[in-house]
Every structure is written in structure tokens, then in C-alpha cells.
Amino acid sequence: MCSLMSRVRPVQRALAVSLQLRRNTESSKCAPAENRWSSPGVNAGADPLRTTRRFYCSRMASSKGLFFRQLFESESSTYTYLLADVETREAVLIDPVLETIDRDLKLIHELGLHLNVAVNTHCHADHITSTGLMKTKLVGLKSAISKFSGATADILLSENDKITFGKHFLTVLETPGHTDGCVSLVVDDRSMVFTGDALLIRGCGRTDFQQGSPEKLFGSIHQKIFTLPDECLVYPAHDYIGQLMSTVGEERKFNPRLTKSLDEFVNIMNNLNLPKPKKIDISVPANLVCGVYHV
Predict the structure, then answer these.
(1) Where in the numbering of this chain does the Metallo-beta-lactamase domain appear (predicted)?
(2) What pLDDT digit, counting tens, does each position of 218-271 carry?
(3) Rounded CA gap, 72 and 97, in Å?
């Protein structure tokens, strides 16, 4: 019996073949994470920073020599991000959580990284940072936070400051609105931005406590984050429904709050009627002193 392909007309057959080839190519670029996590045939002594591949599609990874890992803390649904220079092994940790300090320290040790800076994107209200305690366990580690946060840290960040690690760096964008001390951090080639609580995936940070201002937040996102390239990957401090990342282009087009006018946005934000974070009364005072009261 003739196959289905042999019964279609030549033009249709060519189109079908083209589509199948495209599907095969795309599936090879975006294979399941467990298949792309390590290279087959690599021996046990291989450098993990060189053999570990990014968990997202390779066509999205444009920073050469940059190691990246996204980590998750389930109680507060917080993402922690580890970045390192493959050559020098200098590293930066973004938004570490006290409950996962042992996990983070173990990973840093296993990968042979030298952690230069642990930075908080703002003074968190839903969890306590681990930066202060981590400083007592890693020689030379410095903490960082915005100078407008009111918090204690070794490095107080301002607009356009650079956090360097090896040949790479993160550029600081001041993005207040959720709090006065919110910053977003942009990778040197503008392929990734870590937005803290300012811009979330199809959402944004609340503005009803800690100097919150919907007007400021709207301006921060549109004037700072939304001016980055469409393909720039957005990595927020939280996600509550299992999404790992987005892009600037997606959020500019599909974010249900930020596609509205300023007046509509302010009205939405002023009427969220959310309960206050469960740990706000202990988290904010602790985070004002780098996560531990004696620092």
C-alpha cells in the first residue's frame, strides 16, 4: 500500500517534508531538560561548569563563558540565581534565602566557585535573606543592596553600577515602585534581566506597603525594563504558578497589568486587596541588617 506521503500532490509533499524537518530541528534545539543537562560521554572528572548546559533552549543562550543556575525556595516561591564566569570561577548570587543556605553553599563548593557578591534586589518582606549568615561562612563575600533600601550591606548600589565577576558584569537599573530600593540587574550582553519583584511573569510586585507606589512602578518598568531588547530573558524573584522565565517582548505584549494605561494600572494596583505577607514582621527588620541582627 502506498504511504500517505506518496498520495499527496508534489507541492503538498514538499511542504510536509519541510514542516517535518523544522519540527525535528526545533526539537533538537529544545530537547527535554534531562537530556540537555549534561553532555553524553563526558567523563566523571570533567569540569562541571564547562559540561553543564543551560536548561533553556540553546538558541536563547548568547552569553559565552557564563554559567547560570536558577534555584527555587518553595515556601516563599522565591527564585535564587547563581551566575559565574567559567574561566575565573568568580560568581554572583542573587536573592538568596535563609532556608536554602545549605543547598546554595553546597552547590558553590561542589562547582569550585568563588562567590564575590550576594545581592538582594530589594528588602524582601516574605523571606529572610541568607546574605549575612553566608558572609560568616565564605571568606571575602560581600553583600549588596540598593542605597535607597535603608538596609545595611557592604555595597550600596546605584543606577548603572556594575557588579563584576570575571569578564562578566551585571548592570544595576533602579526600578522602584514595589519598594523604594528595588533594582533590576542586567547581564552585560543584555540577554538576561533579573527583575526582583518589580516585573513578574504576567504580573508585577504589589504596591500597598514598604513605600509602594503604582505610579513609580509603572514608570520603572516602561522606562527601564521595557527598553531592553524584546528577546532579553526576564527572570523574576518570584513565580507562584510554575513559570521559570519570560521575555521583555512577551511582557510588553501580554502582561495584563502593564498593557493598560497608567490610570488603569493605578486603579488595578490600588484594588488588589491582598493579605500582607505572613513573614513581613520578622523579614523586613532582619533584612534591614543583612538578614542577621548582629551583622
Answers:
(1) 77-238
(2) 999 999 999 999 999 999 999 998 899 999 999 999 999 999 999 999 999 999
(3) 9
Tell me how long the chain is.
295
Neighbours of 21 (CB within 10 A): 10
Model confidence pTM above 0.85: no
Q: What CATH number has the domain spanning 66-274?
A: 3.60.15.10
Which residues are bridge partners to 114 per DSSP? Answer: 90
115: amino acid identity, one letter: L
CA trace torsion 80, 223, 226, 191 (10° rounding): -60
Task: Using alpha carbons, select from 185, 217, 189 the residue that is nearest to residue 95.
Answer: 185
C-alpha to C-alpha distance for 291 and 120, rounded to whole angstroms: 11
**99 burial type by CB count under 10 A (0-12 exposed, 13-18 middle, 19+ buried):** middle
Cβ count near 79 (within 10 Å):
20
| 270: helix, strand or coil | coil
d(CA 109, CA 19): 46
Look up residue 146 and give its DSSP letter.
E
The separation between CA 267 and the C-alpha centre of its own chain, rounded to angstroms, equals 28
What confidence tens digit (pLDDT) does each residue in 150-207 have? 999 999 999 999 999 999 999 999 999 999 999 999 999 999 999 999 999 999 999 9
DSSP letter string, 183-205: EEEEETTSSEEEEETTEETTEE-
